[in-house]
Amino acid sequence: MQIYQALITLDGWTFLAQICNLLIQMLIFKKLLLGPVRKVLAERKARADSQIAEAEKLRAEAAALKAEYEKDMAEARAEASQILTTAQQTAAARSEELLGAARAEVAALKQKAEADIAQEKKKAVNEIKDEIGGIAMEIASKVVEREIQAADHQQLIDEFIQNVGEAS
Asked: What digits encode the pLDDT tens for the residues 16-61?
């Protein structure tokens, strides 16, 4: 037990030597190890800070590029919309122009056709008049050649109507 008691009891000189030993180790530790560790930690902190700053800078640039891209896209959409509207207006104007030209052409053709029909009608009426005149002359010559009796008169009228029917 004495061995154990020697371990538990405090000896003043041993305690003082141990404290001096501890202080010397702390001083050596501070001089040799703490300075380089702090230097490494400071370098790591500086590198991390610079990387964070670089990341922030890149994020700001990306945001600016995104804003510029969105602005360009909006301008492109607006320009495409304007081109589409202009094309639609041009197409509508061209369509109206073509419809107007077609209507004018149809009206001209209709007018020409009506004029041709009227001319052909006049021509047919004149031909019928000429034939009727010829038939009337024949009837008159036949009437003059012979005496007209009721039966002859009826026969001449029938011939006249028959000749007019054939002529028309």
From this structure: 999 999 999 999 888 888 888 889 999 999 999 999 999 999 999 9
Alpha carbon distance, N-terminus to C-terminus of the chain:
163
d(CA 105, CA 20): 122
| Chain mean position to CA 1 | 103
Tokens of 77: 């959409």
3-state secondary structure of 164: helix
Apex 141 CA angle, 135 and 144, nearest 5: 140
Length of the chain: 168
Domain ranges of the chain: 2-167
Distance CA 159, CA 134 (A): 13
Calpha distance 8→1 (Å, rounded): 11
> What confidence tens digit (pLDDT) does each residue in 117-155 have?
999 988 888 888 778 777 777 777 776 665 556 677 677
Q: What would you report as the CA-atom Rg of the chain, rounded to the nearest whole angstrom?
A: 64
The pTM assigned to this predicted structure is 0.41
Contacts of 125 (CB under 8 A, 6+ apart): none
For 127, residues 6+ apart whose C-beta sits below 8 A from its C-beta are 167
